[in-house]
């Protein structure tokens, strides 16, 4: 879906581009916050500044996106580049591994669901699953922090988040 | 944050999508060869034994290796400028493997011949400048994600295309001359350009 929107944005469709940027902004807010946390930066305003910088970079380099390829790797590559660049400028060491974070920062739905739909889907989840999803996806905690808060191991949390997201995607596609 | 989204969507202009790296690398390779080969032959002159050499499998093999080197290195430099593109082992390895192939073919002893020495290296470096500038400019128009590696690939590509043009001029068949003054400068350009250009490729 984002591929098509981005293709339209490249052709000059401002409304499609707005949707792309809003989706990207939501994903990037969590991603940047978590990335900066791992660099020891807890300031949320700093994360917002970085998201702005990434959105500007995305805009400047939007001609490099190939709609036949998935959107998320393109977006995360630009985001990671800009965050690492920020780390270099401020002499902070960027986190070494990103794969888990990317998977966790990935959008839950291909298309933004309505608020009430989302609430209904979340309400159907077991309480434990709902809690870890809130910690990781909404509060933007790192895996280690979320695991400590949920009193479970990091690997168990990753598995639970992965399964919950899979479950949500399935329910979301059934609903649409 | 909403302001950023608003300002970016306001007066949005269509953009021309970046062509695929293989196509751009192919066009660059064609343009560079079309520029350097006639230039070298006109300005420096063709080697006296060019007709004879073009019938030798070793010479043709070396030229083929050079072609593979500069095409695959240019493609690698451009792939590294497209965010989210998967860069496979073959993508990364081919420029270096074909350059080593070129060196090995040169190292197979031919008969000893008069050698130009350092002149060849200087000519090679001079010939490589324009294709190098063109390729670096192309890469910079995209979004170079690994500036060091991309710059190094650009260095190899520009050196290899110049080495191909030079091999049509330099009459030397001496293995040590060819390895030291024709092949090693290409490796050296990979290192020097890799170090020197990476900062410029950042965005």
Overview of this structure, please?
By secondary structure, chain A is mainly alpha-helical. Helix content of chain A is 73%, strand content 0%. Chain A contains nine helices and no strands. In chain A, helix 1 (2-10) crosses helix 2 and helix 2 packs across helix 3. The longest helix of chain A has 25 residues, at 14-38. Chain B is an all-alpha fold and 203 residues long. The longest helix of chain B has 27 residues, at 175-201. Chain B is elongated and about 70 Å long. The mean pLDDT of chain B is 90.
Topology:
The complex is a heterodimer of chains A (176) and B (203).
Chain A: H1 2-10, H2 14-38, H3 44-60, H4 71-89, H5 99-105, H6 115-123, H7 127-138, H8 143-150, H9 154-175
Helix pairs in contact in A: 1-2, 2-3, 2-4, 3-4, 7-8, 7-9, 8-9
Chain B: H1 2-9, H2 21-43, H3 50-53, H4 57-79, H5 89-107, H6 118-141, H7 147-167, H8 175-201
Helix pairs in contact in B: 2-4, 2-6, 2-7, 4-5, 4-7, 5-8, 6-7, 6-8, 7-8
């Amino acid at each position: 879906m984002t591929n098509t929107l981005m293709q339209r944005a490249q052709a000059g469709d401002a409304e499609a581009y707005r949707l792309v940027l809003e989706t990207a902004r939501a994903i990037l807010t969590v991603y940047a916050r978590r990335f900066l946390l791992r660099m020891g930066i807890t300031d949320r305003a700093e994360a917002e500044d970085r998201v702005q910088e990434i959105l500007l970079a995305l805009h400047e380099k939007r001609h490099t996106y190939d709609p036949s390829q998935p959107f998320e790797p393109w977006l995360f590559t630009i985001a990671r580049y800009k965050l690492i660049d920020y780390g270099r400028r401020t002499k902070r060491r960027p986190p070494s591994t990103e794969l888990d974070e990317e998977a966790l920062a990935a959008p839950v739905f291909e298309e933004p669901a309505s608020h009430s739909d989302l609430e209904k889907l979340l309400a159907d989840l077991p309480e434990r699953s709902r809690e870890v999803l809130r910690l990781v996806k909404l509060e933007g905690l790192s895996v280690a922090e979320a695991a400590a808060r949920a009193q479970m191991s990091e690997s168990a949390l990753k598995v639970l988040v992965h399964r919950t997201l899979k479950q949500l995607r399935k329910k979301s596609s059934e609903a649409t | 944050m909403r302001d950023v989204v608003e300002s970016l969507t306001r007066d949005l202009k269509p953009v021309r999508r970046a062509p695929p790296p293989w196509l751009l690398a192919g066009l660059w390779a064609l343009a560079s060869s079309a520029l350097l080969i006639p230039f070298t032959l006109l300005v420096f002159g063709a080697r006296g034994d060019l007709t004879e050499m073009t019938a030798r499998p070793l010479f043709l093999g070396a030229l083929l290796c050079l072609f593979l080197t500069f095409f695959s290195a240019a493609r690698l430099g451009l792939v590294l400028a497209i965010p989210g593109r998967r860069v496979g082992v073959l993508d990364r390895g081919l420029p270096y493997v074909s350059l080593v192939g070129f060196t090995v073919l040169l190292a197979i002893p031919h008969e000893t011949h008069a050698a130009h020495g350092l002149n060849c290296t200087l000519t090679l470096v001079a010939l490589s400048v324009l294709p190098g500038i063109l390729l670096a400019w192309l890469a910079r128009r995209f979004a170079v994600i690994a500036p060091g590696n991309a710059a190094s690939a650009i260095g190899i590509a520009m050196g290899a295309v110049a080495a191909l043009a030079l091999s049509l001029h330099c009459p030397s068949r001496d293995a040590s001359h060819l390895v030291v003054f024709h092949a090693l400068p290409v490796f050296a350009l990979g290192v020097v350009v890799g170090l020197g250009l990476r900062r410029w490729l950042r965005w």
